[in-house]
Amino acid sequence: MPCIRRRLSIDGAKLLLARGDGQSVGFALVAPRARTLEIFYLGVDPDAWCSGVGTRLLLIAEDHAREIGRETLELWVINDNERAIRVYERSGWVGTEEVKRNTSSGRLDRRFLRHIR
Predict the structure, then answer these.
(1) Staple 25 to which of 36, 48, 61, 103, CB 3.0 to 4.6 Å?
(2) Best CA proximity match to 55, nearest among 109, 108, 92
(3) Residues paired with 41 in a beta bridge
(4) Residue 48 neighbours by CB distance under 10 Å
């Protein structure tokens, strides 16, 4: 929770919620950067995996990016999170060679970008 609170304190940050059957089934936390809209967190309830919730949240984030005048979205994903990477790639995201060590987990994160019009 402290990390989520810290990201929510960024100017212009938004929490996007996905609901199904009257319950929250996913969320995305996004915030504008100088030239991009960054997705800091994208989470989907495991019971809702493979139902399109993550893809819909990515599309909503794209709409928000357009609304605030950003043509590029970015995110960092754990480099071996194959499930998440498949969702991003199916949605048109492209992995970069840029990696960094996640300070809390010690794992490698890879930067992904999505250019929109």
Answers:
(1) 48
(2) 92
(3) 29
(4) 17
